[in-house]
Amino acid sequence: MTRFDYVRPSTVAEAVGLLEAHGDDALAIAGGTATVLLLQKRMLRPELVVDLGGLPGLTGVEQNGGGLRIGALTPIRAIERDAIVRGTHHLLAEAASQVAGVRVRNAATVGGSVCFGEPQTDLPPALLAMNATATIAGSQGSRDVPLEEFFLGPYETAREQGEVLTHLSVPTPVPGSGGCHVKFTMGSPENKPVANVSALVTVDASTRALADVRIVMGAVGGVPMLAHKANDTLKGERPSDALIAQAAVRASEEADPVEDLRGSVWYKRRIIKVLVERALRCAIERAN
Amino acid sequence: MQLELTLNGKTERREIAPHHTLLDVLRDDFNLKGTKGYCHSGVCGACTVLLDGKPISACIMLASQTQGKSITTVEGLAEGENLHPVQRAFVENFGLQCGYCTPGMLLLTVALLEENPEPSKEEIVDYLGGNICRCTGYANILKSVQAAAALVKEASL
After folding, report:
1. In B52-101, alpha helices (H)
2. Which CATH architecture has domain B2-76?
3. Which of A55, A108, B9, B80 has its Cβ near the most Cβ atoms within 10 Å?
4. Distance from C-alpha of B125 to C-alpha of B144, rounded to nearest angstrom
5. A54: chain B residues, CB-CB within 8 Å
6. Which domains does chain A have, with CATH numbers?
7. Positions of CATH 3.10.20.30 in chain B
8. In whole angstroms, what is the distance from residue B21 CA to residue B3 CA?
């Protein structure tokens, strides 16, 4: 690691001020599981590390109007185990339980996972499928950014250098909804995904048609992607094996994977097709 | 910078370099060599310690991040000559060969049994699965964890 100064601000305003004043020379860290690794490998060489871990009031999950308010510093492991999340936002708990191993999940935070902007991880697709909104504090006050507009590219998000993500708001799915997160890895389940899929569907109680479908594909593009064509294929229709297969093919065409150590483009398209089918079947079953 | 933390139950203060990891500081500043470094990427689990009772990888956390917190290393498990029940279970069930992964396995087991005193085989595998034993002694590690669950339960009765 290269040398750096370290500061642990005790208010969001102080953190914002430090990040703004030091610009690109500063690195904000939360749990540090991703960032300290990059510091160790000297891929990041900041002059100042701003540890957000001591900011008060940003840890925990509370019910808020029509959904959950999740503090950015809530450990991923806490999301996985939280009774409220497991009850109303099961998809999120399921995705959280699939992030790396238990040691990483205890230290890594929800906000850190979102702000790191890594394409190969599990929480962002689930949060996007659930239509979450990020609240970001800056020197001019707070702004809300829907996750659909938050992820800009690999390791690139709408959070500016002088800003701090404070919490995520995640609406409660309407009755008749079911969600499912599936992940495929090379080797052990702790590995980063070759691809993953979060699906949230709503089944109309009287017609049995799919009133809403949000399939999100992860690790097969620079950002987690809504499978728009697949979603449109399914919306308003009663699900059948043929329709699910057709949607999965559309999703694999929409996917934009790159070749890396986890597989070729050809391979990842085939994996994503199978994952979309699995996630859909599982989500529809849970909705019924 | 001045680091103050509770280390194996005792309050400790030490002047540390802000860019050193918790693993570096435990081994080099506190001379606690039980915590091992191997992959230095948070993958293998050799450096597992407990932060406020929960297992984390000491190689991907800055020591500075533990300011005011409580850390338990393998040195904090035994009381003098009396081994912790989890340590006893590993000894009695040959749950170690070369021993390099053992501190991490022990601490992970302590945390698992704290969360879930009667884990199923699948729950044990899921919880410990991220920690790698390069001797591949997994069968006896699993046996040791099952025996540890029984010993811990007995000790708490």
Report:
1. 85-92
2. Roll (3.10)
3. A108
4. 12
5. 67
6. 5-54 (3.30.43.10), 61-171 (3.30.465.10), 177-287 (3.30.390.50)
7. 2-76
8. 12
Residues of B in contact with A104 (CB under 8 A): 42, 57, 60, 130
B136 contact A CB<8A = no
- DSSP 8-state code for residue A260: B
* Tens of pLDDT, residues A1-51: 889 999 999 999 999 999 999 999 999 999 999 999 999 999 999 999 999
Residue ranges matching CATH 1.10.150.120 in chain B: 85-156
Q: For residue range A139-188, list pLDDT tens digits in order.
A: 999 999 999 999 999 999 999 999 999 999 999 999 999 999 999 999 88
Q: What is the mean pLDDT of residues A122-137?
A: 98
Query: Where would I find the H helices in A63-221?
Result: 76-81, 83-88, 90-96, 102-107, 110-116, 123-129, 147-150
pLDDT digits (tens, 9 = 90+) for B4-39: 999 999 999 999 999 999 999 999 999 999 999 999
Rounded CA-CA distance B96/B90 in Å is 7
**Domain B85-156 is found in CATH 1.10.150.120:** yes
Contacts of A53 in chain B (CB under 8 A): 65
CA distance B57 to chain A (A): 6
Candidates B62, B114, B115, partner chain A, best to mutate (most A CBs within 10 A)? B62
Is B65 close to A100, i.e. CB distance below 8 A?
no
pLDDT over 90 at B155, yes or no: no
Token pair for residue A278? 């699995």
The per-residue pLDDT for B156 is: 81
Strand B2-7 to strand B70-72: parallel, antiparallel, or no bridges (unpaired)? parallel
Q: What Å distances lie between residue B92 and B89, B104, B110, CA to CA?
A: 5, 18, 16
